[in-house]
Amino acid sequence: MIVQFLNVVDRQIVEGRIRTFKYICHGIAYFKNSLFITTYTVLYEYTQGGLLVKKIYEDTSGPQKVYKCAVSSDGSRLNVTNYTLDVTNNTLDVTNYTFNKLLTLYMNGTVLSSSEHPALQCPLGVHMSASGQLLVCGYRSCTIVQVDAEVGVVKLASKEDGLDGPESIYYRAGRLIVGQRSDNILVINTK
């Protein structure tokens, strides 16, 4: 599998270097010169140069148990879906597509928590915003939720807002950018 870096120069996308891996790289998160890569069953940490640092987490109990990931803004944890990866605050959050779970893991792979919620049916995409908000896409439930340890799960968007099979999420400058099935992208202004 090839991973290609892209840079933005003068508002134009410029192709950067290429790294080759021996397995399918399904989810990728970047934090302080480290790449966090999911392969459906394993979450690895690599250097930006492509050298393996460590295997962080593995679940071979079924297909696509480690789907995508995101890293917390302070690098202390990872958030991972069973179908998505995102890293945050030295912990890792992993969602389970079959069982609709979101796992939070420490950076060493230890499970910090496991949670379920009806608004997270088939959790795919996961994103940790710069301000530390954990956002997760519920593909079957057609929802975008914010997961907070103190408040719980807060629905931010749903089918009524135009969601149709959300698969990936990104938040910046008051905008939710949602990648959906059928190659559709939805931008929701939150201000």
Entry keywords:
single chain; mainly beta; 191 residues; four-stranded antiparallel β-sheet; five-stranded antiparallel β-sheet
Strand content: over 45%
Q: Which structural category do the helix and sheet elements fall into?
A: mainly beta
For the secondary structure, the number of strands is 18
Largest sheet: 5 strands, antiparallel
Integer count of domains? 1
| CATH architecture descriptor | 7 Propeller
Radius of gyration: 16 Å
Task: Count helical runs.
Answer: 0
Query: Cα distance, first to last residue?
Result: 39 Å
Give the name of the CATH superfamily. Answer: YVTN repeat-like/Quinoprotein amine dehydrogenase
Order of helices and strands: EEEEEEEEEEEEEEEEEE
CATH hierarchy class name:
Mainly Beta
- Give the overall silhouette: globular
Mean of all residue-level pLDDT scores: 84
- CATH fold type: Methylamine Dehydrogenase, Chain H
The stretches of 5 or more residues where confidence is low (pLDDT under 50) are: 83-89
What is the share of helical residues? under 10%
